[in-house]
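Anyone? Bumping this.
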Amino acid sequence: MTASADVLVPADRGETLEELVHIAEEHAKGGISNPVLGMILFIASEVMFFAGLFAAYFSLRANAPVWPPAGNAEFDLRAHIALPAVLTLMLILSSVTCQIGIWAIRRGDRKGLMRAFTITIVLGILFLAGQLYDYSQLGFGVNDGVFGSTFYTLTGFHGAHVFAGVLMLGVILYRGMAGQFSGRHHDAVEATSLYWHFVDVVWICLFTLLYILN
Amino acid sequence: MIRPRTTLLVAVLFLAIATIYYALSQDAGGTTMLVALAIGMGLLSYTLALGSPKG
Amino acid sequence: MATTVLTPSTARARSGLYDWLTTTDHKKIGILYLASSFLFFLVGGILALLVRAELAQPGLQYMGESAYNQFFTMHASVMLFLFVIPMLAGFGNYVVPLMIGAPDMAFPRINALSFWLLPLAGVIMMLGFVLGGAAAEGWTSYSPLANSKYSPGVGTDLWIVGLILIGTSSILGGINFLVTIFKMRAPGMTMFRLPILVWTVLVTSVLVVLGTPVLTSALIMLFIDRNYGGAFFDPASGGSAVLWQNVFWFYSHPAVYIMILPAMGIVSEIIPVFSRKPLFGYKAFVFATAAIGALGFSVWAHHMFTTGSVYLPFFSFMTFLIAVPTGVKMFNWIATMWKGSIQFSSAMLFVLGFLTMFLIGGINGAFSASVPVDFAIHDTYWIVAHIHYVLFGGSVFAVFGGLFYWFPKMFGVKLNEGLGKLQFVIMFIGFNLTFFPMHELGVAGMPRRIADYSPMAGWNDLNLVATIGSILVGVSVLPFLWNVFVSLRSGERAGDDPWEGNTLEWATTSPPPPYNFDRLPEIRSERPVFDQRHGLPGPAAGH
Amino acid sequence: MTRIAKGIPRGASIAALAAIAMLLVAACGTGVSVLQPPPAATEQGKATEWLYQVVFIVGVVIFFFVEALIVYAAIRYRRRKGDDSLPPQIHGNNVLEVIWTAIPVVIVAVLFVISWQTLNTVDAVSANPKLRIDVTGFQWQWQFTYPDQGVTLIGLPDKEPELVVPVNETVQVKLESRDVNHGFYVPAFLFKRDVIPGKTNVFDFKATETGVFDGHCTQFCGLLHSKMLFKVRVVTQQDFDAWVAQAQATPTPAPSLTPAPSASGDAGGGGGAVQPVALQLTAQNIAYDTSELSAPAGAPIALTFVNNDNGIPHDVAIRKDSPTGEEVFAGEIFPGVATKVYDVPALPAGTYAFVCTVHPNMTGTLTVQ
């Protein structure tokens, strides 16, 4: 080994002062805001949370000799698809209204945000109520073998996420009424809407898997 | 430093691992987690690269 | 460099207990993390000593199987989830914002929440001991053993709840680190000028953010099985016992890297400073860290070779592959010391201990990557030796190195070097006395997690040696406690930069002001403080 | 600089020489075996043993080589007193990085390939083995069934079961669990395989020498995991045949595990001078439903024992004073779900313990007045 082989000076050194100033300015502008970035990372984490539940579902389903397991005619969820289908449409619609709210506040339209988010919250609550009603109509429980366990765990934890989303939307609404958001300052609104969209996407996967591909 | 689109290679990497894994083992559970990991990794690294200041 | 003295009025405006309970200052939260983790280290250590006491001789001398099973389960749970992971998170909390020249973490209040969840979770886990028995299924909590049918006690439910809280704390902490590292860097602190510790915390945070939720979902499924008649892991109702192992290890193998990568980061900060050389192969180090993180997600089933239900060559290959980036790191550390000017401070001694112990822990781990050899040593004391060489000989030695290294920054006083060296010598000898014989016990066939063994099995002497070693390890903590006590009272004043450090935390006062920096040096390499001390390197100024 | 640069290969070669010397000392030390598994007693185990030796030697060489580098660097480049000079600031060397990436890649690739080859030997399962044995694990004992010979053995806490097999013949073991995960491990075979509920694992072994070998449960399985032991006795074919004949003649050496008929009917029998006292006890979730029973002195007891644990064997044994005291009665062990009536003879007044022979943690007090 000789000295010439040693990398004595990293290649990326020696910016001019102008370059340094430029870097500092770029820092000040800085990409995505912290709350939104944090929320997207949290969503990535939630993806893996549901991955664990989905992994259990697929693994148990692959192990089962028949799916849905024999012995309970109620396991055929396609017979129950009407209400969940309506709920799915409601949740998709709520994502649309949520996004309308975002577009409104980006324009600085506070009233538009309030209106859109109120509708979103109402749709979210209706979804939860509809799901609870749906549970009450199903002829099996969480203790009915792997089918009951996976069904209620997947939909139940999704429901819990919808509930959390409704609470977050409520906080946004409350803060919005207090006049805390503007066209320039509405990171919390953006973050909440991303979460709401994510919850929507999870439901579409669940609906497809549990009801259509059952 | 790295263009956000380049970071999606991480997702491709894990999709490749998931594919190989499924081809070899036919294990539904593990494959689900690896595919989800590809999505999670992709989302995470893409936003981090997009969201962070240059340099 | 002149020492900047804080004006007392600003520094002491709000002090006392209330301040510590409500603080959102990353430095105070970091110290809280370290203190709470150290308390749990003592708790876990006492549990370990109880386990070792029972194993010193064949026969049941001090406790029944029930107590023994609770003790080893809680020993592992406390050490992994309430000591090693939070301890390293504590270092990250204290050091990362300083190293990147930020005033605080990105989300200071979430940071406080992350911390306060931990003691809460610890208390919930421990409550089992007074409510009819703590969890006793091993920290891996294999189902169906952990189902309510075979483990009806409330201790397991408390364990699950505690672990979910710890997981939540980790995820929030991981997100906080990622946003901080990506968004709060000082001007000039590009990604490839980040200190290696920051890189390791970054990769660790990715593992935490994407791995921990899988554990959360596994724990929730277990909780549903136990309390609401779920059937996920109950073969009698169509569930799968192997499924638990899959979801559990999908998190818990990356968790091993969560527990070692920041320790490697600490080592990578200490070696260059006490060798007076830059880290050899900085970029190789970054890539090796990323490679370990990525590979870490595709080796989970190497804990399940003996189940007969995993595709063995895939996981064997991936596991072997992890040895490569780990080896790269080892050679880079040695190359950093090569031709250096090595000072044997206590911090450096612990790091040298780390290198040796981690080397053994890496090699004896490679045995398990070879599937047939794993069939011979899996679930024996060999594995106990392996995890302790990695997590104790590795992580804990690095933790003590880090404590000696950053203590002056945190409190403005140095820890006593003599006591530190005494501690190192006792701990190093005690550690090897405890865990090296376990290799021999393992190949001889002693299974792990047994409360008792036959006096005819030929394991008596080695177990006695291991127990004596464990007492030495216990004793070695005493000089440290005394050291902290006397040093805080009358330690040698450290000054801003007692070790001639490289990274930005040494550019501010000891302890730093609440907002961290009055002014930052120019950042043109991964060693801004070194550059400032020796003159900025430029293309023209090559040595 | 040049002087030090020359020092590197010299240092490395010194380190390598030291490593090899130490290795030779370790290898040649007659009668000294460090970190060696017990001599393998099966064909499969011998393959694993060979692989272990290879991995071991590679590991030891790497350890001494790297450790020598660490020690050499630490001593050779220690800071002398009063030396304040700055050593050369070397940031890295790409050639070296490639070398110490490539060499480990080659090493692990070789290890992987030979491991895979050995795995194929160890894991191979014969289509027509000479002897089949069904091994069932349950908390905290083993049951060995020879389906073709009609022999069943079951272990008890004070008497670990012994798996008897002929030497030099392929034996196929089928592993099943009735409750939680267990591990079938024989150190001298250098082999273990998990015993998992809801999943059947199969492996072959061919013992190469006669003798008695210890076996353990290695997968933590609850309270008395450490007591879940067994032995493997490898005998010649003649001895094995003789053993089988003897085992078939004596009606099952250990209590039978055949499911009991639901026996509410055949209880009424045994009418003696004194009318028996009826008592009931239920076992569920590895626990008795009560910890207190009482009965009058001098009267026989008709103890209706309901075992509600599906597939898990229980019984009721009555012992004087304490669960470890002198046994005065032992009922038949049978798996659930089933019910049996035990005819317990009349007992003198006193305190007794009732306990499950299979699960010593299931205990209660029987007061006879």
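Late reply, but here is one note on the structure posted above: Helices of chain B lie at 4-25, 28-51.
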